Amino acid sequence: MVSGGTVSVSGTTNEEVVQTLFPTQFMNGNIHCPVVVQTVGGAYNSTQQLHIWDPQQQQEHQEHQLHLQGHVESESQVEAPQELLMPISLKPEEGLDVWRLWVQRKNAELDKDEQNKLAPIGRRQALRFQEDLVSSAVAELNVALALMTQEAQGLEGERFEPDALYYIFLCIQKYLFENGRVDDIFSDQYYTRFSQWLHKALDEWRPSIHPLGYIIPSHVTEEMLWECKQLGAHSPATLLTTLMFFNTKYFHLTTVEQHLKVAFSKVLRHTKKNPSNPKDKSTSIRYLKGHGPLGTHHAGQKVTDDMYEEQAEDPENPLRCPIKLYDFYLFKCPQSAKGRNDAYYLTPEPVVAPNSPIWYSTQPITSEQVEHMLTRIIMVREIQETIAMSSVDMH
């Protein structure tokens, strides 16, 4: 059973405990975990003043209605400027097109450079990148994707805004997964160079303001992250990202410093009974606001329910349920780490299997790792909306 953040096993096997605690999909092998990856070619076997455009209405209206956070103007409709039309799902073929275009231009550049130089005797054949994304070797893909963070362009030679660039790489990730590749370009250790260069490209991103005064939403949505397995229990790194995503979205932790203050002992499990039906219970996890950005709790002050931020369970969607994923994380953490008051995000073990009893070491991830993960999370459209509404509430 899971009780107060610990897992105790009594009279049952580990497998039985797992089957009762977590959805079977968490444990049935349909989970990507970082394994030893091939390094050779070949396919792998509001507010009144804050206006935010809501791209979801693209699906429902040809003329798009202005969405006001906290203030609804039901009588007026405004046509969406063309440049505000945003993607609503990942299109892997778009990532592939950008990849192929970059490869063609890069190889042409390398060919031109080679013609202007005398090749040394005995020099190996110059590197050329493959248009076939799926059969590209890991080392080659790592270098290419890193270069793309600085060089990727559209058909007309236009540079991508950081959020659009992130969207392109998410499309590429989905394309790889759909075509049999198991590597996660955002978290596998083989893609460290790409991860570092991507962070540099994304770090300075802030939401843009349209000349008409609207905040232009990010290209990246939460659903897109679920689509390409960047959220969920697919691997230790993905599960860790998911916890940080939920803590940002629901606990309103938006800085590295705030996330570094989260600890196992500060995240509290809470069960609430339905007054009209005592058998009807709902479970949540709580975090005292005094530990977060609002700083509402002071030493010696009586703690009341409204002083907590909360993540509620989602019984209709267990694979995306914050409580199920929190429990699963506890189950995969070393027992000695679960009561700590100085750590929450633990370092994933480098090589694990889905049924490995432990996915994490006792060592917390570094502040640099938190920063890299949080930078990508902050770019998500729903997170930006949460931040905007939180800033309004504070005023």
Description:
It comes from Oncorhynchus kisutch. Keywords: Isopeptide bond, Phosphoprotein, Ubl conjugation. InterPro entries: QRICH1_dom (IPR057926), ZMYM2-like_C (IPR021893), ZnF_MYMT-QRICH1 (IPR051284). By secondary structure, the chain is of the alpha+beta class. The chain has 2 domains: 2-30 and 231-394, no CATH class; 79-118 and 126-226, no CATH class. 35% of the residues lie in helices and 10% in strands. The chain contains 11 helices and 9 strands. The chain has a 3-stranded antiparallel β-sheet. Helix 2 packs across helix 4. Mean pLDDT is 80; it is low at 1-21, 28-53, 55-83 and 291-297.
State the domain count.
Answer: 2
Q: What is the tally of beta strands?
A: 9
CA distance, first residue to last residue: 43 Å
Mean of residue pLDDT?
Answer: 80
The percent range for helix content is 25-40%
Strand content: 5-15%
What is the 3D form?
A: globular
Count of alpha/pi helices: 11
Largest sheet: 3 strands, antiparallel
Order of neighbouring strands in the sheet with most strands = 5-6-7
Organism: Oncorhynchus kisutch (Coho salmon)
Pfam families: DUF3504 (PF12012), QRICH1 (PF25561)
Domain ZMYM2-like/QRICH1 C-terminal: 217-379
Domain QRICH1-like: 90-205
Note the main attributes of this structure.
single chain, 395 residues, alpha+beta, 2 domains, three-stranded antiparallel sheet, two-stranded antiparallel sheet, 9 strands, disordered N terminus
